[in-house]
Amino acid sequence: MNFTKTWNHLWHWNDQVKSQLKNSVKILTFSQPDPKHADNVREAERQELEQEEPNPPNQPRLYSKVQLIGLFLGPLLFLLIQFVVQPETMSAEAVSMLGMIAWIATWWVTEALPIPVTSLLPIVLFPILGIMEMEGVTASYGDPLIFLFAGSFMIALTMEKWNLHKRIALSVIAFVGTNPNTIILGFMIATGFLSMWISNTATTMMMVPISIAVAKHVSDSLKNTDIDTSPGVFPFGTALMLGTAYAATIGGFGTLIGAPANTILAATLNNLYDVQIAFATWMMFGVPLVVLLVPLVWFYLIKIAFPMKVNHIPGGREIIKEELRNLGKTQYEEKIVLTIFSLTAFAWITRSFLLENFIPGINDTIIALCGALLLFLIPSKNKKDTILDWNTALKLPWGILWLFGGGLALAAGITNSGLDSWLGEKLVAFSNAPLFIILLFIIGLITLLTEFTSNTATSTMVYPIVAAGAATLGTDPVVLMIAACMGATFAFMFPVAAPPNAIVFASGYVKMSKMASAGIWLNLICIVISCLIVLYFVPIVFGNLSVM
Length: 548
Fold this sequence. Notes:
Oligomer: single chain
Pfam families: Na_sulph_symp
Keywords: Membrane, Symport, Transmembrane, Transmembrane helix, Transport
Helix content: over 70%
GO cellular component, one term: plasma membrane
Protein name: Sodium-dependent dicarboxylate transporter SdcS
Transmembrane segments: 68-85, 115-132, 138-157, 169-190, 236-257, 277-301, 336-355, 361-378, 398-415, 427-449, 461-484, 490-510, 522-542
């Protein structure tokens, strides 16, 4: 009875997170209405929230059809593979591992259980199936890079707590003029920069209400023209929303902590090949790509996908300045957070060629945790607690940390069971194919898969498989795994591909057809660019990390 109640509570909290995401966007959409309208909006939202209260804790969780199918299909695939698939050259442990991949992947894709819960399956089943010992499996969930992500996320949460991230974004946007094209560029630059250090989901959630306020103002100023300014049709509004979402995704690629796919890649390479990607090394690779892709996507949105007929919009800058005035003067706490953030970023960048000479043993994880600990130690001026308190730290995405661990456990299981060698043998037929064709296939296939599943789950699944096939194909695993990371990151067609896409879609300013038609061309462009980058730029940056 207690177990059932606890289980239903877990699903209730899962639904609350989803509904809060949607309703927070709706509520923030009406950020500047007149008082009378605001009262009506609040009353409507209150009634809607009461009507939409999902699955109260005392009621059983109802599965959707897809979830119900996935719930039974996952174990069924495992059993079929376990008792039907018996290749002569495959060990019993490798067969079990292949079945576990099918089971976990099915539950991840269908969300039969919450994705983080599914990520705990290796702890339960790997020791039972003889794939790995318990100590080896659980070690994956305590990988140093998981704590790198935790430390950096605590710093990001502190920036959000004191509104420093909003001040940075508004300050960047305030430099742009009243030209609609430069307004969009300003939003994309601010979003891309913040996403390098804060999760792209949090960045987009912050930027969307500001974007909506600007789009609404522009719409009102063009009422007496022949331009259709209704949400979902207005070219400026659509381009602004998509630009914000796409910049958040692209910006996250700039640093190791900017997106989970990057962190998982570094951890997988370290576990499989003892190859460590330094924070500064990844920035040398990621930042130039951000600098290249943000202007390219901006140009595509304003000139090809959603060209604007108006070259000047009165009052666009005033909205941003008003938002800055509402924030008031920079607080003591903001200055402390900015100082510690800057010192942490400086330490990350200079660690490999400067700090290691003075502090042997220092690494990016230690730097991140030191930054977070300092925020816990320094008292705030206007509050009774410290700059970072435990209630804020509790907002850490613990589920993503479990997902990291599950992905690393899968990678270790593939190696320990010998499945990597068996997969490599089956790829011999492709060993003579040109590298460009191999890259095109890998990046294109993973991009397509990411459009329909979580990009974090996708990257977690494919990294070990790509690594397993690299040796047989005669290709450096580092190169192919970075290609897989790019394929899992640059997916722009559908809301489910990435959280920023889902958030702007919920705003009402972007239709599914508009996102798909604009995103498909960006996908194709990024697939080709990714292939060229992997062929010619990756060897320059990561050449010293080759495991060939």
